Amino acid sequence: MSERKVLSKYYPPDFDPSALNRRQGKPKNKQQAGPAVQVVRLMAPMSMRCTRCGEYIYKGRKFNARKETPLDEKYLGIQIYRFYIRCTRCSGEIIFRTDPKNQDYNVVSGAKRNVEPWRQPEEVDETDEQRLDRLEAEEAAANGEAAAEQNRMEELEAKTLEARREMEVADALDEIRTRNARIARADHRDHLETVALTRPGDADAEERQRQQDEEDAAAARAAFAAAAAGEEKAEAAASGGDGSGSDSEGDDQPSWLGKAGPSHAKTRESTSTSSRASLAAVLEEPNGTVPSFKRQVKKKTDRAVLLGIKKKPSLV
User: Fold this and answer.
1) In angstroms, how far is the first alpha carbon of the chain from the final one?
2) What are the residue ranges spanned by the domains of the chain?
3) In Å, what is the CA distance from 246 to each residue of 228, 234, 237, 254, 288?
4) Which of 71, 75, 169, 316 is least buried, going by the fewest C-beta atoms within 10 A?
5) Lowest mean pLDDT, pick from 73-77, 111-115, 274-278, 282-286
6) d(CA 146, CA 270)
7) pTM of the model
8) Which residues are annotated as a binding site for Zn(2+)?
9) For 242-254, what is each residue's pLDDT tens digit?
């Protein structure tokens, strides 16, 4: 049962210990001064809320209370009792007393009674002044409600006008966007018409460019044909001037791969630029021979001998 022991309590920021009422101990060998006080065990007769920390205390909660019997408080000869309890959260003192007139309890201080809708308010005898004050308060409340209703209507009208203005602005923006889109489409259509009108001139330019390309291609073909004819004539002259050399070389090797001579010089002069470049590359080789592209195997270096490692002779 140790979990039920309370080790600390809540103290609100505005807690003032000096405001607490200290109980005076019962004097020895003397009669008690003031009203009779005794400790009793009771349950909360009503639901209430602490005014200091806001803690709710429900009806039927048990407390250890101090019961006070004030001799000067009576109603039609019926004794009125006061009870002092502590809030379960902030330990604030709550005082309530009996009410023999209404057969109920009244909160004196420290708490506020919760609203109980099932309790019917009883008729209270009021004077003429109190009745006038109540009527004036009710009239003021009615006027305030009317003014509040009027203010709400004005606010609603203002909101309606603002919404209508926003809708008009949105419609105007949509109209402007539509007009701009229509103008843009019209400009695009005009541009297409302009392009269509200017297309014949472009066709003439393309035709001229095509004719120019065909003329350039024909000139290039004629130049290549003339160069080929000159090369054939040079080869024929070279073969007729040195017949023994061509016979001695054989069919495997062409005649223009022999030693350089006057015939080779005439041949180089009559060939085109590309043929002269290829012939010069071939004739730069010694004796005018064709370079060999045969793979040459490089002898491997024996690294073991360089490192001083002696291999054992093979037994096979």
Assistant:
1) 101
2) 32-113
3) 22, 15, 12, 8, 15
4) 316
5) 282-286
6) 120
7) 0.33
8) 50, 53, 87, 90
9) 544 444 444 444 5
